[in-house]
């Protein structure tokens, strides 16, 4: 076990998942399971460190088991106290009329336009391009009094954003039980507990129960989005909007064909790094 007098170098691990949003979450979970004290999302790459006695080849294997297509780089590094030091790596994200910030950067900000997210293990801290893409596309789309469904809600950042933009009621549906506590804490922290309901379960099953909805948000992965499209279409109000994310830029043309085949049309797009997000309405 490492200690303060151990002068051997630590190891910096940079992992770039290539299997989409679900693979990215699996890689982060693998790093935590291997003993990481915290991870930083830097675009499409996650960064962390391990002490000198860490089995780096086992860590590499765990990452590749989570996403066989991931790029993994391990190099010597100066130690970082991730129990506190990781906070310096997470900043505020100004996204049009809204900002997504961690709790320690929220003081003095307008609560009406600020989304405060504790960066736990749930996906959606504002540090990922897909989250930022949806928040940018939502603005000007959410109407006062809207009923919204957020599928794959993660930290509930998008559900909270919908309320800040005027939604009356949001169902934040999340399949991952480990994310529920973090989502509920974020909902309370942002003062929207009366308007956001966090629900654990399968979106295909739960979406019909909250229909009709005027806006559906779904930041998942492209294969799951395609599977959910029939349920989304059935739940959508006649004048509804859909915002899809978690899609790789290289998948854009294929997704546009799927969107057209569903009877929808793309009316706005967002592109950051390798990620693409799209707003759709019925054609």
UniProtKB/TrEMBL annotation:
<dbReference type="InterPro" id="IPR029063">
    <property type="entry name" value="SAM-dependent_MTases_sf"/>
</dbReference>
<keyword id="KW-0687">Ribonucleoprotein</keyword>
<dbReference type="Pfam" id="PF06325">
    <property type="entry name" value="PrmA"/>
</dbReference>
<protein>
    <submittedName>
        <fullName>Ribosomal protein L11 methyltransferase</fullName>
    </submittedName>
</protein>
<dbReference type="GO" id="GO:0005840">
    <property type="term" value="C:ribosome"/>
</dbReference>
<keyword id="KW-0489">Methyltransferase</keyword>
<dbReference type="GO" id="GO:0032259">
    <property type="term" value="P:methylation"/>
</dbReference>
<keyword id="KW-0808">Transferase</keyword>
<keyword id="KW-0689">Ribosomal protein</keyword>
<dbReference type="InterPro" id="IPR050078">
    <property type="entry name" value="Ribosomal_L11_MeTrfase_PrmA"/>
</dbReference>
<dbReference type="GO" id="GO:0008276">
    <property type="term" value="F:protein methyltransferase activity"/>
</dbReference>
């Amino acid at each position: 076990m490492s200690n303060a007098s151990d002068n051997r170098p630590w190891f910096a691990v940079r992992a770039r998942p290539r299997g989409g949003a679900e693979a990215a979450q699996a890689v982060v979970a693998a790093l935590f399971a291997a003993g990481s004290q915290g991870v930083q999302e830097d675009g499409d790459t996650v960064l962390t460190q391990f002490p000198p006695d860490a089995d780096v080849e086992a860590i590499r294997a765990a990452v590749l088991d989570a996403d066989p297509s991931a790029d993994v780089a391990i190099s010597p590094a100066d130690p970082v106290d991730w129990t506190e030091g990781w906070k310096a790596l997470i900043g505020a994200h100004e996204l049009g009329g809204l900002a997504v910030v961690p709790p320690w950067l929220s003081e003095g900000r307008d609560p009406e336009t600020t989304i405060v997210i504790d960066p736990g293990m749930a996906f959606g801290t504002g540090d990922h391009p897909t989250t930022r893409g949806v928040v940018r596309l939502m603005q000007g789309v959410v109407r006062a009094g809207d009923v919204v469904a957020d599928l794959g809600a993660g930290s509930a950042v998008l559900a909270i954003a919908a309320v800040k933009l005027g939604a009356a009621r949001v169902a934040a549906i999340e399949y991952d039980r480990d994310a529920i506590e973090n989502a509920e804490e974020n909902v309370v922290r942002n003062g929207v507990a009366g308007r956001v309901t966090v629900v654990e379960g399968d979106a295909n099953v739960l979406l019909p129960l909250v229909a009709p909805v005027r806006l559906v948000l779904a930041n998942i992965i492209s294969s799951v989005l395609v599977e959910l499209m029939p349920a989304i279409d059935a739940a959508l109000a006649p004048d509804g909007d859909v915002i899809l994310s978690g899609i790789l830029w290289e998948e854009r043309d294929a997704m546009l064909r799927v969107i057209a085949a569903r009877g929808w049309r793309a009316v706005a797009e967002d592109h950051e790094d390798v990620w693409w997000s799209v707003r759709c309405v019925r054609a």
